[in-house]
Amino acid sequence: MNTKLNNRPLYEDVADRLREQIFSKQITPGSWLDEQSLAKQFGISRTPMREAIKVLASEGLITIKMRRGAYVTEVNRGDLEQIYTVLSLLESQAVKEVATKASEDELNLLDHLHHRLEKAAADRDIEQFFEINSKFHELIQEIAGNRWMNGVIDDLRKVLKLHRRESLTSTGRIQNSLMEHREILKAILKRDELAAEAAMRKHWARGLEAIR
């Protein structure tokens, strides 16, 4: 019996490519999406393009207006404040769980990522700092292991990428963010769930202050 798995649906690959164009600002927030032109550009029919747009709409990256079409979501300051508030609540709960349930190997992985974060900050490599910062938070989610919570966090983080690096490029924000990560990691390594929760809340509050 042939047990070979089928290839990914075409629309998923199209969604990946379209998502990257949005994150890289090749397609800017507020831009209306011409389904027919995009399909032609990608060398596909309109059906997988339509399905890809629905995927990104479910992630919040694209907004669909009835009888008007779809456009790349624009995120204003009010939206950002609401997103930061929700992420603060969810990630504070996640890190609280990590402090109590992480294995020694998982603690070592977090410590390793933090050392890489320290190096990126020392090198003033904003791109690298941004990427490792994301991996640090993703690992916390993974260790916490709540797939429902992680699904919400993942979608909100995708929306935040529409304004990627905005807070980190504020004066002194990288160093402040680094110190906040030190507090988070210190609390996790001590398995102090309340301190970890408080440190994560502080981290998101300071991040919000940086974009105001």
Q: What layout of secondary structure does this protein have?
A:
Layout: H1 10-23, E1 32-33, H2 35-42, H3 46-58, E2 62-65, E3 69-72, H4 77-101, H5 104-122, H6 126-144, H7 147-160, H8 173-189, H9 193-211
Antiparallel strand pairs: 1-3, 2-3
Please report the number of helical segments.
Answer: 9
Supply the helix-strand structural class: mainly alpha
Q: What overall form do the CA principal axes indicate?
A: elongated
Run of helices and strands: HEHHEEHHHHHH
Strand arrangement in the largest pleated sheet: 1-3-2
Rounded to an integer, what's the Rg over CA atoms? 19 Å
Specify the CATH architecture of the largest domain: Up-down Bundle
Distance between the termini: 60 Å
The tally of beta strands, per DSSP, is 3
Mean pLDDT: 91
The CATH C-level class name of the largest domain: Mainly Alpha
Find the CATH topology of the largest domain: Four Helix Bundle (Hemerythrin (Met), subunit A)
Taking the sheet with the most strands, its summary is:
3 strands, antiparallel
Describe the structure.
The protein has 212 residues and is mainly alpha-helical. The protein folds into 2 domains: 63 residues, Arc Repressor Mutant, subunit A, CATH 1.10.10.10; 135 residues, Four Helix Bundle (Hemerythrin (Met), subunit A) (Up-down Bundle), CATH 1.20.120.530. The chain is built from 9 helices and 3 strands; from the N terminus they run αβααββαααααα. The chain has a 3-stranded antiparallel beta sheet. β2 and β3 form a beta hairpin. α1 packs across α3. The longest helix is centred in the middle third of the chain and has 25 residues. It starts with 9 loop residues before the first helix and ends with a helix.
